[in-house]
Amino acid sequence: MAGVGGPGAGAALRLGLGLGLVVALGLGLTGCSVDASTAAPESKVFPFHGKTLDVRTHEVATDLVAVDREDVKVTRWFDSAAGSEHLSWELKGGVLDIDAGCSGFAICDAKFKVEVPKGVAVLRDGRKSGIRGER
């Protein structure tokens, strides 16, 4: 019969410490909350001369708005507490590709607002969005 400090004691101690560390980390991060709506906005303006714009959102919350302007304005709100961030926005050939998120052990939140010229047909991820203002 193995007593305290027997052959399995070191492994049990390491396992117990490892589980304690995981629990402590988990409890510590539950207090971390992120909210894109409280983040400072960043904006970028893209020249645009087409009749149709396809906005690729990568499942990030995105408001599409037709306004009196000649270009496309994108505003991004992003907040993160953990993980590797990946942020991108690019307009190429009638496709606006926007993305914001994080990977790994990650905690983040993002949202976009895309202002497009009135009269431009707007697709969301290749499908009709119903956004098209009158000039």
Keywords:
single chain; alpha/beta; 2 domains; 1 helix
- Estimate the helix proportion, in percent: 10-25%
The overall pLDDT, averaged over residues, is 81
Uncertain ranges: 11-30
Largest sheet: 7 strands, mixed
Count of helical stretches: 1
Protein described:
With 135 residues, the protein is of the alpha/beta class. The protein has 2 domains: 31 residues; 93 residues, no CATH class. The protein contains 1 helix and 7 strands; from the N terminus they run H-E-E-E-E-E-E-E. Strands 1, 2, 3, 4, 5, 6 and 7 form a 7-stranded mixed sheet that branches. The longest helix is centred in the first third of the chain and has 22 residues. It is elongated and about 75 Å long. It starts with 8 loop residues before the first helix and ends in a 7-residue tail after the last strand.
Short recap of the structure:
This protein is an alpha/beta fold and 135 residues long. The protein contains one helix and seven strands. The chain starts with 8 loop residues before the first helix and ends in a 7-residue tail after the last strand.
